């Protein structure tokens, strides 16, 4: 079936959550949001482009930092309301310069930082 | 720092997205939503409990199907507005009986089903 971005289910703001996963290691790097146009740009360019809710603008990941995400494969969930992006991540995915945004774990009832900045 | 669920950022419906990842293989299984109370139940019981947006009720994963998710570790992202759940998944995570909900891939411009039901 040919892919039609408008066939996905977007929320009341026209957005769909997109999970970025390292294609090689399986590490979950981050979650951000896309609208139909940012998804189109991602597919067309092979560079992951989100929609920034805080800035209300397209967010070509790594545009200013150089920490780009190259799309390896796009996957769609059963309800068509969430995306999984298998990516080739240059450097850190997180703005804190950690590889993943999920660097805080709950252990024995307390928050623990489990990863250091890599750049 | 002791964990306080109310310190997380919930959306205007009081929900936060939660990504479930197989703790052993790294496979991303599904994404669903939690509110503060479902997160509390998840931590307290060790059984992952979401908030069903369609049914507007708590959704103790596997309650009817037996395909439970045991919480191995909870992780929080840098913005405190997304959760990553490392889980021990019994059987399929998806209601289509596939291990993961992300069984549709975009390849050469077309949607391809890349996984079969396992149960």
TrEMBL record, chains A, B:
Annotated binding of Zn(2+), by residue: 78, 94, 101
Keywords: Amino-acid biosynthesis, Cytoplasm, Histidine biosynthesis, Hydrolase, Magnesium, Metal-binding, Zinc
Major localisation: cytoplasm
UniProt cofactor note: Binds 1 Mg(2+) ion per subunit.
Cofactor(s) essential for the protein: Mg(2+); Zn(2+)
Subcellular location: Cytoplasm
Any one Gene Ontology BP term: L-histidine biosynthetic process
InterPro entries found in the cross-reference section: PRA-CH, PRib_AMP_CycHydrolase_dom, PRib_AMP_CycHydrolase_sf
Record's subunit section: Homodimer.
Family as reported in the entry's similarity comment: In the C-terminal section; belongs to the PRA-PH family.
NCBIfam families: PRK00051.1 (NF000768)
Described purpose of this protein according to its UniProt entry: Catalyzes the hydrolysis of the adenine ring of phosphoribosyl-AMP.
This protein's name: Phosphoribosyl-AMP cyclohydrolase
Species in which this protein is naturally found: Szabonella alba
Organism phylogeny: Bacteria, Pseudomonadati, Pseudomonadota, Alphaproteobacteria, Rhodobacterales
């Amino acid at each position: 079936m040919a892919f039609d971005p408008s066939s996905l289910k977007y929320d009341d703001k026209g957005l769909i959550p997109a999970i970025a996963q390292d294609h090689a290691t399986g590490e979950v790097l981050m979650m951000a949001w896309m609208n139909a146009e940012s998804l189109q740009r991602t597919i067309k360019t092979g560079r992951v482009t989100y929609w920034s809710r805080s800035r209300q603008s397209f967010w070509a990941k790594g545009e200013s930092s150089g920490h780009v995400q190259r799309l390896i494969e796009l996957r769609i969930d059963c309800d068509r309301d969430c995306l999984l992006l298998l990516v080739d991540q240059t450097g850190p995915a997180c703005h804190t310069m950690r590889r993943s945004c999920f660097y805080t774990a709950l252990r024995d009832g307390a928050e623990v930082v489990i990863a250091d900045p890599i750049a």
